[in-house]
From TrEMBL:
Phylogenetic placement of the source organism: unclassified sequences, metagenomes, ecological metagenomes
GO biological process: translation
Descriptive protein name: 50S ribosomal protein L35
Assigned GO CC terms: cytosolic large ribosomal subunit
HAMAP family per the UniProt record, alphabetical: Ribosomal_bL35 (MF_00514)
Matches recorded under InterPro entries: Ribosomal_bL35, Ribosomal_bL35-like, Ribosomal_bL35_CS, Ribosomal_bL35_sf
Keywords: Ribonucleoprotein, Ribosomal protein
Example of a GO MF term: structural constituent of ribosome
Keyword Kinase applies: no
Organism encoding this protein: marine metagenome
Record family assignment: Belongs to the bacterial ribosomal protein bL35 family.
Amino acid sequence: MPKQKTRRGAAKRFRLTGSGKLKRNKANHRHMLIRRSKGVKRKMRNAGIVDGSDSQKVRRMLGV
């Protein structure tokens, strides 16, 4: 049986933490930031955790 291939786009976007959760970057932090408040920009800088309903799909894409 052949090995399962990792979806490379997903591998670049998600990281597995030590406790087994999936880390992700937050969206809307590339351009057009002048209208956003400092607090919103600061919160977008921190990594988010993938929701439980999506984590199974992401794990399958990563081959974990």
